[in-house]
Amino acid sequence: MKKNYFNRIFSYAWIFRKYFVLNIFSNVFYAFFGTLSMISLFPMLKVLFNQTEQLTSPPVWSGISDLANYSENYLNYFVTLKKVDGNNDVLIFMVGLIVITFLLKNIFNYMSMFFITYLRNGVVKNIRNDIYKSIIKLSLSYYSEKKRGDIVARISSDVQELDHSFLSIFELIVKDPLMVLFTLLSMFLISPKLSIFVIVFIPICGFVISLVGKSLRRKSLKVQKEQGQFISLVDETLSGMKILKIFNAEEKFQKKFTNSTIRFYKFSNSVLNRKNLASPLSEFLGITAIAGVLWVGGMMVLKENSLDASAFIVYLGLAYNILTPAKSLSRATYKVKKATAAAERIFDVIDNDTIISENKNAIEINSFDHNIEIKNMSFSYENDVVINNLNLTIPKGSSVALVGQSGSGKSTLANLICRFYDTQKGEICFDNTDIKNLKKESLRKMIGLVTQDSILFNDTIKNNLLIAKEDATNDEIINCLKVANAWEFVKKLPKKIDTNIGDSGNKLSGGQKQRLSIARAVLKNPPILVLDEATSALDSESEKLVQTALDNLMKDKTSIVIAHRLSTIQNSEKIIVLDKGQIIESGKHKELMKKDGVYSNLVKMQSI
User: Fold this and answer.
1) Torsion sign (Cα): 370, 371, 373, 379
2) Would residue 356 count as lying in a domain?
């Protein structure tokens, strides 16, 4: 692995360490009683085969090295005592001992799973929270390179894969190794010679299994990427359904989706076939080991007489008892390989540094008093220069309109003022302070934004507006709706401001959605407004209502208006004409019309 993702996941698990400690405690007893449940068969077999040695006095403790003999002699003494007393319920006692040990084993098994559930779900919760935290913090430039569906896949299916693979190892990390350890110790007590044979065989099994899992991580990464691809395609299909249908492109998109799912099918088959190989391969190797034990142990019982039959049967049970945890540990190797691919994609988002950083000594501003000044500013998207050595001053209280052909840099300039991107050369100053030296939150409190696409959320009208001011009263919200010319339709809705407007506000018309966006900006009441083509997507009647709302909104505020419809900005105090990121004309409407330059031509073209 390029990075030790297991350590990263463990740091998340450490927060829930109390559950991990309780899980370890439960697993210790599970492994102990799991081993004891097999050993408890030994006295039963002794009694059934009448191999119990007659002892009339209790054995003497000679130290831990003689534990096996002491236990066996004490059991023989107990059985002899019961027979002397004429008590025939020895078998009942033996059966009860077996039942109790198996019951305790399963109680502690449930307790271990109970505690690890809180740890696993807690880790998943915190990882998802961290991914979402990064999604919100990341710069818009990050999303220009990523598909939305791929991001959704990372926070959903990739985290789920991490839970099923990486986090399931926390169940095995103590339970199975302890079970193997306790079982091996018991096997050593019964027959060291046979146990050495088993211990030599285990590393050989591990080596064979590891050979199969080498390519699993690489193939798992392809599975995760392809899953993100077809989720993105579904997202694009739902967003562009009208275009898809009107251009009869259903078959084309169906083909793209089918090709993606075919690739996912092939990659998934390859991964799962390797993963599924772990269980039968480990079981076959385990049975091979059992066969070896049968042969060596059989020779010891039948020819050498160095091991009695009942002890050998218990030993076989212990040897088989070791197969289940050994199989789980071998599957864990595959799970780690598969989960590493998911972890790589998850931490790519969490660790991504494509953010608008904030200086340590950034200051907070609570007012806007003088002007916005852009000094020698340049900005590029990769190699495409969008803003080229721009200089502009916007005094407080003025209304400045930005016009120009598509790609001239209008929206980019607005995005830079809002600090959605950082300038690459030059600076933007609010009251003579570079915005890079201002706290982002306080900077954005000064700015209200209304975009061409009304960005609304699947919630009530009230909650959509409360984004601007959390503690706003109903009366404040209604007043803002009135200023935005929106109350006239909101008051007719079934639940008025408590009406849910659907996904992206799809229960409303374009004009209604835009007026809600304006009402949200009114409620925020910022000193600076950025209106990015706020009326360009509307019909004439809606445009008139929205324009009136915008005029109400812009009163006594500093406004930066981006418009394609030049009729809406003719009363602006200053019109800036941009071309390839440079100012080629500036002035009032009448002044620019007299120049008969680029602006005049744009107006004439729209009036035709």
Assistant:
1) positive
2) no
What span, in angstroms and rounded, lies between the C-alpha atoms of 54 and 73? 9
What was the pLDDT predicted at 107?
92
* Averaged pLDDT for residues 557-574: 77
Contacts 24+ apart (CB under 8 A), 376-380: 376/425, 376/426, 376/427, 377/416, 377/423, 377/425, 377/426, 377/427, 377/428, 378/423, 378/424, 378/425, 378/426, 378/581, 379/409, 379/412, 379/416, 379/421, 379/423, 379/424, 379/425, 379/581, 380/424
Check residues 202 and 99 and name the one with the higher pLDDT: 99
Choosing from 318, 350, 382, the residue where a domain stops is 350
Claim to verify: residue 91 and residue 192 sit in the same structural domain: yes
From 411, 513, 528, select the one nearest 455 (Cα to Cα): 513
Domain count, the chain: 2
Confidence of residue 81 (pLDDT cuts 50, 70, 90): low
Q: Which of 322, 350, 378 is the last residue of a domain?
A: 350
Tokens of 194: 């046979």
220, 341 in Cβ contact below 8 A? yes
What tokens does 251 get?
């078959």
Q: Is the pLDDT of residue 549 over 80?
A: no
- Summarize pLDDT for 409-437 with one digit per residue, the tens: 888 888 888 888 888 888 888 888 888 88
SS3 at position 80: helix
Same structural domain for residues 280 and 409? no
326 and 392 fall within a common domain: no
Comparing 355-369, 456-470, 529-543, 584-598, the range with the smallest average pLDDT is 529-543
- Looking at residue 51, its pLDDT comes to 57
Question: Tell me, what CATH number does 145's domain have?
Answer: 1.20.1560.10
Separation of CA 329 from chain center: 26
SS3 assignment, position 275: helix
Helices (H) and strands (E) in the chain, counts: 24, 10
The pLDDT value given to residue 1: 39
pTM, rounded to two decimals: 0.67
Lowest mean pLDDT of 69-83, 303-317, 360-374, name the range. Answer: 69-83
Model confidence at 2: pLDDT above 50: no
Q: Which domain holds residue 569?
A: 370-446+564-608
> Both 287 and 384 in a single domain?
no
Classify the C-alpha dihedral 48-79-188-24 as positive or negative.
positive
606/601 Cα distance (integer angstroms)? 9
Largest pairwise CA distance in the chain = 126
| Beta carbons within 8 Å of 179's beta carbon, 6+ residues apart | 30, 31, 34, 35, 321, 322, 324, 325
The reply to whether 44 and 86 lie within a common domain is yes
For residues 293 and 173, state if they share a domain.
yes
- In the chain, the amino acid numbered 408 is S
Query: Is 197 among the domain residues?
Result: yes
Same domain for 299 and 436, yes or no, is no
pLDDT digits (tens, 9 = 90+) for 207-234: 665 565 555 555 666 676 776 676 777 7
Rounded Cα gap, residues 555 and 518, in angstroms: 13
**300 and 391 housed in the same domain:** no
Token representation of residue 508: 């409303």
